[in-house]
What we know:
The chain is an alpha/beta fold. It has 6 helices and 11 strands. It starts with 8 loop residues before the first helix and ends in a 16-residue tail after the last strand.
Amino acid sequence: MTSSDYWDAEMARRYDEGSAAMFAPEVLEPVVDTLAELAGDGAALEFAIGTGRVGIPLLERGVRVHGIELSQPMVDQLREKVDATHLPVTTGDMATTVVDGEFSLVYLVFNSIGNLRTQEEQVTCFRNAARHLAPGGRFVIELWVPGIRRMPPGQNAVPFNVDDRHLGFDTYDVVTQQGTSHHYFRNDDGSVGYGASNFRYIWPAECDLMAQLAGLEFESRAADWHGTPFMADSESHVSVWRKPVDAALPQTERPQRP
């Protein structure tokens, strides 16, 4: 059982078109470059692989990729691009689903950890990532910094996109850390469509604590996939945690730290 929203067939069919900006080479190539470097000669596991926006080009770079995805309709869209022999996907939630093998890289992009709407599930997701990592492997998350810093007292909504085709804003409950993204789209016939998705927001420091609970060590944090330094006013982060090399050794065989 998961608290995540479920992407049905209609949402899955429209996903690539609605996220077209995220497929642009200038957006996608730095993501794939970074992940390919971190994966090295090992295999990569993508949580919430969706329609394969990142997994497929990473596979094309020569990295062995396995995916986990909750929505079967999203997997069906991915299957129109690549078959299961080349890119296997296990259907299930990213907090508890286990696949065979060890990975040098587990990654979760495009704010997707927020789809898990309880802190318990998010902690379990970090632990699931650690479970799949080989010693020395890395867990990478791409996540926005909550926009509540821009809300004046009494306001509960922050716009994140305003243009001729799309109006998007987030509403926040700062007590529960629950939020909803609202999307209004102008269709070609002039009509307006609406969609919404729910999330739980997490601060970077909370992510670090979840990683620590999972036995992972903080390695780096940048503001984006280009490696821009993370600052107090950064609106997103790409964070990397590492599974200790000695994690698989019995306690008596682990190097003693001073």
